[in-house]
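Summary for the steering committee. One of the milestones for this cycle was to obtain a three-dimensional model of the protein with S-adenosylmethionine bound, which we needed before selecting residues for the alanine scan. The sequence and ligand used are listed below.
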Amino acid sequence: MNEPDWAPESADTTRSNVARVYDTLLGGTHNFAADRDLARAIRAVEPHVATIARMNRAYLIRAARFLAEDAGIDQFLDIGSGIPSEDNVHDVAQRANPEARVVYVDNDPVAVAHTKAMLTDNYLAAAIRADLRRPGEILAHPTVRNLLDFDRPVAVVLTSVLHFITDEDNPPAIVARLRDAVPPGSYLVISHGTDEDRPGTAKAAAKVCGRAAPATPRSRQQILGLFAGWELVEPGLVYLPEWRPSSPDEACDHPEWCMMLACVGRKR
Ligand SMILES: C[S@@+](CC[C@H](N)C(=O)[O-])C[C@H]1O[C@@H](n2cnc3c(N)ncnc32)[C@H](O)[C@@H]1O
C-alpha cells in the first residue's frame, strides 16, 4: 500500500488509532481508511461527536489562553497532545509571550511526526514520543529537562487523554506523580469523558472507541479525585461549554449532552 510521505514507518495505518480518529472528527487530513471507519462507527452512537471534539478543542484553547494571558504561565507540558490542529497550545502561549516554552508528548508516531514538522523553526517548543502511563520517563526526558524549568510553575495539560488510561494503570497515581514534579503555582488542565448524565451513550461510545484503545468514561467524583492537591480554578469541574465560554456561541443549553467534564486546578 502506498503511504503518504508524512506517515512514519512505525505507524500501523491498517488499524484505527485514537489520534487519527480525533483528527478525522476535527476535519483534519492525517488519517487513514481505518480511522475514518471508526469515526463513522462512533457517529452511529452519537451523531454529533464531531461537535464534541470541537468543543473539547475550544476548551483546551480557552484554558491555554487563561493560563498564558491571565495566570502568567509560560511553560506547558501537553501530554496526549494529538495531531496539530488549527490553533495549538504553543500558538496561544507564544502569542501571549514569545518566550513561552511548550513540550508536546504523545504515544502516537503520526501525532509526534506531524507536531515536530510544525515546530521545525520553533526552538522554544518540541515534541517527544512517550507514554503517559510512564510519567517518570516523560519527566526525565532530555527534551523536557532542557526546555522546561521545574523550579518555576508549569502547566500540565491532559485534555481528552485520561479516559484512555485504564483503572489498572491508576490515573490518580499518574496525575499525582506529575503534580509532585512541579512547584506550587503550577496548573493542571483536564478534560475527561464521563458517564455521569448519559451513561448509556457514554458506555456505548466507549465500547466502539475501544476498537482503537480501551476507553473508560468516569464519574464526576472520580474526575474530581484527580485534583487532589490542586485548588480548583473557577468555575470548578463543569461540562466543556460551561468552562468560561468566550462567547454565547460557545455556551450550550444542555451542556451535559457533551459527556465531557473539564477543570483547571492550581497547585497549592
Ligand atoms: C482525543 S486526542 C486529544 C488530543 C488533545 N489533547 C486535545 O484535547 O485536543 C487523545 C490523544 O492522546 C494520545 N494518547 C492516548 N493514550 C496515550 C498515552 N498512554 N500516552 C500518551 N498519549 C496518549 C492519543 O495518541 C491522542 O493523540
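Key point for the committee: The longest helix spans residues 49-70.
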